[in-house]
Design brief:
With about 250 residues, this protein is α+β, with helices and mostly antiparallel strands. It is built from 3 helices and 11 strands. It has one domain. Strands 2, 3, 4, 5, 8, 9 and 11 form a 7-stranded mixed beta sheet that branches. It has a 4-stranded antiparallel beta sheet with strand order 1-6-7-10, with helices on one face.
């Protein structure tokens, strides 16, 4: 019997992005594991234009709160498997023993911005606000581009993927681990772009340099816009929960 997966709860890779006048160690992008049970990870905004109201955190995380005066914004994003991803697990026999066979029928990744942990410094001047929002928008765009590229790569990589375990739970775990590893690799790759972008635009107020990055990401977003499938297979329309003890990671700068 086919069982479908509605959402992958664990493998949430978060991107914490903080704009600042300089780029000291506390503000540089880096991976950081977080509590596996944080409820905010279930929420988020898929890619769109950001506004001031999207930054709902009242304060920065404790580890960077002492540097608040040097930060203009702190944006929390992640790459996740979208709800329309399709997975199946079937029960069968292997060497005369019951096994569970899991496959990834279709996988779609998306970038999500989490308002509850995204912070905007109330001291940002009116003339700099547009620059700061644009800065965070570019970080969000870089993450969305990475998610789209990962979708194309993962579809090829998982075409012949098969998880085979003796229990249903272990098969779920193997699928989760596969997806988690793909997202982790994508995060490590896009981390370099986030760092380059910050080095170009966060060290000083440079609208011209930031505009170059904005034009670049807008072009990449256009080129990677996914084609819409108006006729999805009927047997792949709904999905059950996949739960596994995968760590969640932040990319923080």
């Amino acid at each position: 019997m086919l069982r479908f997966i509605k959402s992958i709860l664990l493998m949430q890779l978060l991107l914490l992005l903080s704009s600042c006048a300089q780029l000291p160690e506390y503000a540089r992008p880096h991976l950081k594991e977080i509590d596996n049970k944080q409820e905010i990870l279930k929420n988020g905004i898929t890619y769109r234009q950001l506004t001031v109201d999207d930054f709902q955190a009242l304060e920065l995380p404790a580890n960077i709160e002492p540097h608040a005066k040097n930060l203009a914004a702190h944006t929390c994003c992640r790459i996740r498997a979208a709800k329309n991803s399709k997975f199946t697990i079937t029960r069968g026999y292997l060497n005369q023993q019951i096994h569970y066979f899991g496959s990834i029928k279709d996988i779609v990744f998306e970038a999500v911005m989490i308002p509850e942990c995204s912070w905007l410094n109330p001291r940002v001047s009116e003339e700099k606000l547009e620059y700061v929002l644009e800065h965070e928008q570019i970080h969000f765009a870089l993450m969305e581009i990475a998610a789209r590229k990962l979708t194309r790569k993962a579809r090829k990589e998982t075409k012949n993927f098969m998880a085979i375990q003796s229990t249903y739970e272990d098969t779920q775990g193997e699928i989760s681990a596969k997806i988690r590893d793909m997202v982790r690799t994508a995060n490590q790759t896009v981390l370099k772009e986030h760092t380059s972008f910050d080095e170009d635009t966060s060290l000083y107020f440079d609208p011209k340099a930031q505009r170059w990055w904005l034009d670049r990401v807008e072009e990449q977003l256009f080129k990677t816009t996914p084609k819409i499938n108006f006729n999805p297979p009927a047997e792949l329309l709904s999905l059950p929960s996949l739960v596994s003890a995968c760590p969640r990671l932040y990319l923080q700068h």
